[in-house]
């Protein structure tokens, strides 16, 4: 059976045409999937019953199974998905701001989804859980779209997705062929309707792929994971950078900025005793001087079995003040969903370790929080 989400328009247009049905049927199915958030063809009630049944015979909407669904007190929800070939990926829904019911005008409300692009990761950043066992394979477009739809289904009827960050497992720029059509579905008016500037692609910094993105589709926000202010230290933290000097990455980031006009983000995971000294903040400020950029500092989220530590609050503050005193815009990423291992790759890893086979029901999350398992 074909996975519908791999190429919705192309597959459906051909299918309806072969049956003498109007092209408007494609739009009907899209509306049910993206706007009405239904689980399958059976619920698409403006299509004739026979058509729905035939669609269900020829296409599957879902190619993954929910292996685990966790929800933290702060509203963060995480899905561990098992792919058709048995691989596992994670994706996360982050809630910020008051619940919509309390604040009808919707100011300050964010519903951000964080999605994966690969099973595992080949970049090998020393502190990250996703890459501990290397990369297994790229995800398909359908598997990426599926994460977005499944996360959207966790929302209450009065909630809407506002942002997408491609910051889950894997290196997005190593899988642009599948990612770009998936993000197209996120941004299209008859897709998730999320504007390009609210979609961020995070990369370890692959210059050739950054160039390709700049030349083909510079509408998204770009975030570049630096983690170090010089090549010597970066090589220790980001092994892939052995062959990729910071200067090349920054040159491509600047080129992307020229093409996109969008402020760049530089990510910096703060690791105690390794890259968190004020002198390193000063060096980072010098490195980034003159750029329209924001530095997203992420205090290390501990991964079981790895030797790294989260810097003290005082060290975090000193790092921030040094950057700010040198004119750098800084954002500290608040840790969300710690209790459910929301940092990339952690849940999958734990699942592998404990060989948890338990299956949470596909509840769609509405009004049934009691049925959600909290990771211990
Ligand atoms: N491959 C992409 C996307 C990775 S995930 C990239 O490198 O940018 C997005 C961010 O989360 C990256 O900056 C990554 O370094 C960071 N990250 C990964 N594991 C982390 C951890 N345990 N604690 C804090 N940040 C982490």
Structure, described:
The chain has 376 residues and is an alpha/beta fold. Helices cover 32% and strands 19% of the residues. The chain is built from eleven helices and 14 strands. The strands form three sheets. The chain has a ten-stranded mixed sheet. Strands 1-2 form a two-stranded parallel ribbon. Helix 9 links the parallel strand 12 and strand 13. The protein is elongated and about 70 Å long. The structure holds S-adenosyl-L-homocysteine.
Features:
single chain, 376 residues, alpha/beta, two-stranded parallel ribbon, elongated, binds S-adenosyl-L-homocysteine
Distance N to C terminus? 37 Å
What kind of sheet is the major sheet? Answer: 10 strands, mixed
Strand order of the largest sheet: 3-4-5-6-9-10-11-12-13-14
**Helical/strand content category:** alpha/beta
Task: Give the radius of gyration.
Answer: 21 Å
pLDDT average, as an integer? 90
Beta-strand percentage?
15-25%
Helix % is 25-40%
Tally of DSSP helical segments: 11
Low-confidence region ranges: 355-376
**Bound compounds:** S-adenosyl-L-homocysteine
- H and E string: EHHHEEEEEEEHEHEHEHHEHEHEH
Strand segment tally = 14
Based on Cα principal axes, name the global outline. elongated
């Amino acid at each position: 059976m074909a996975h519908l989400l791999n190429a919705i328009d192309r597959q459906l247009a051909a299918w309806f045409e072969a049956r003498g049905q109007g092209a408007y049927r494609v739009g009907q199915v899209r509306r049910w999937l993206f706007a009405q958030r239904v689980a399958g063809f059976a619920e698409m009630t403006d299509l004739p019953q026979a058509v729905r049944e035939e669609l269900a015979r020829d296409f599957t909407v879902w190619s993954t199974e929910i292996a685990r669904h966790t929800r933290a007190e702060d509203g963060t929800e995480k899905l561990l998905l098992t792919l058709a070939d048995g691989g596992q990926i994670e994706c996360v829904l982050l809630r910020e701001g008051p619940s919509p019911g309390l604040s009808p005008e919707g100011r300050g409300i964010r519903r951000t989804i964080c999605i994966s692009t690969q099973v595992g990761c080949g970049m090998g950043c020393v502190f990250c859980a996703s890459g501990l066992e290397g990369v297994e394979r790229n995800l398909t477009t359908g598997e990426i779209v599926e994460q977005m739809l499944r996360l959207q289904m966790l929302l209450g009827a009065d909630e809407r997705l506002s942002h997408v960050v491609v910051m889950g497992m894997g290196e997005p720029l190593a899988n642009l062929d599948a990612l770009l059509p998936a993000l197209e579905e996120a941004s299209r008016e008859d897709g998730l309707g999320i504007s390009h500037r609210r979609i961020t692609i995070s990369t370890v910094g692959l210059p050739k792929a950054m160039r390709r993105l700049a030349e083909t589709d510079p509408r998204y926000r770009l975030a570049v994971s630096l983690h170090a202010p010089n090549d010597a230290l970066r090589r220790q933290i980001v092994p892939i950078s052995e062959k990729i000097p910071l200067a090349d990455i920054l040159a491509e980031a600047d080129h992307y900025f020229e093409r996109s006009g969008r402020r760049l983000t530089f990510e910096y995971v703060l690791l105690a005793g390794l890259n968190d000294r004020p002198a390193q903040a000063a060096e980072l400020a010098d490195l980034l001087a003159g750029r329209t950029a924001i530095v997203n500092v992420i205090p290390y989220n501990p991964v079981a079995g790895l030797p790294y530590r989260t810097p003290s609050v005082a060290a975090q503050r000193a790092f921030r003040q040094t950057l700010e005193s040198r004119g750098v815009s800084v954002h500290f990423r608040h840790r969300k969903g710690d209790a459910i291992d929301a940092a990339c790759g952690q849940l999958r890893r734990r699942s592998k370790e404990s060989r948890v086979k338990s299956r949470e029901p596909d509840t769609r999350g509405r009004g049934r929080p009691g049925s959600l398992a909290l990771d211990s």
